[in-house]
Amino acid sequence: MHNLSDDGGTIIPLIVNGCVVNDSIVQEVLDYWEGLRDGRLVPKRSEIDPRALRKSLNHTFILEANTPDNIRFRLAGSKLCDCMGMEMRGMPAYAMITQEGRNAFNEAIQACLASPQIVDFQLSPTARMVLLPMADEDNTISRILGCVNVDPNNPGFPTRFTVRSMTQTRIIAAESILPKLVAELAEDQQPFQPKPKKAAFAKPPHLRIVK
């Protein structure tokens, strides 16, 4: 996992490119996250205000990484739970993916936190999922704001998703790396080994959840 207090350098605005999603559900979450980020590497989890996600809230979820290989649902919107046919809170992140795609899916989530980067998936049954990294209060990037846009009334639900493709956009100091399109997630990739970096927060948060 990446720690925001590790790197210096100037953070420039993210060029999302292939990760910009046309549908309004995912786009609302992506725009909100980008607004909170406000030139920093990532926003903090405590800045998320559910009231700002009126249209997409039931489609969103939050993942928490206790360790790089133990990433679980902290919160899950009702639409995702309907698609899975069960309550997802406390379940491992890979629980929404078919068995054969879980190893590569886990590696993509680990990369989302360690690089950090935006990950945009095309799923089957037809759905779109975006993962957006966030920091906790000690500045460690160990949370993910996610969104899945899918019709829960599809006759194929409840089911688990198959990843058809993904687009990755890394976010680093002073540079934005173009996304890498992966047509099919391979099962024989080597386990991801996070390499700590450091970057500084530039501004205080504008929105906070009252706990």
Write the SSE topology.
Layout: E1 2-3, H1 24-37, E2 60-67, E3 70-76, H2 78-84, H3 102-114, E4 117-124, E5 127-134, E6 140-141, E7 143-149, E8 162-172, E9 175-176, E10 180-182
Distance between the termini: 25 Å
The CATH topology name reads Beta-Lactamase
Order of helices and strands: EHEEHHEEEEEEE
Structural class of the helix and strand makeup? alpha+beta
CATH structural architecture: 2-Layer Sandwich
- Share of helix among residues? 10-25%
CATH superfamily: PAS domain
Shape: globular
Number of domain modules: 1
Number of strands: 10
| Rg from Cα | 16 Å
Quaternary structure type = single chain
Q: Which spans of ≥5 residues are poorly predicted at pLDDT below 50?
A: 7-22, 173-181, 183-192, 194-202, 204-211
Relative strand content = 25-35%
CATH class: Alpha Beta
Largest sheet: 8 strands, antiparallel
Number of helices: 3
Average pLDDT across residues?
A: 77
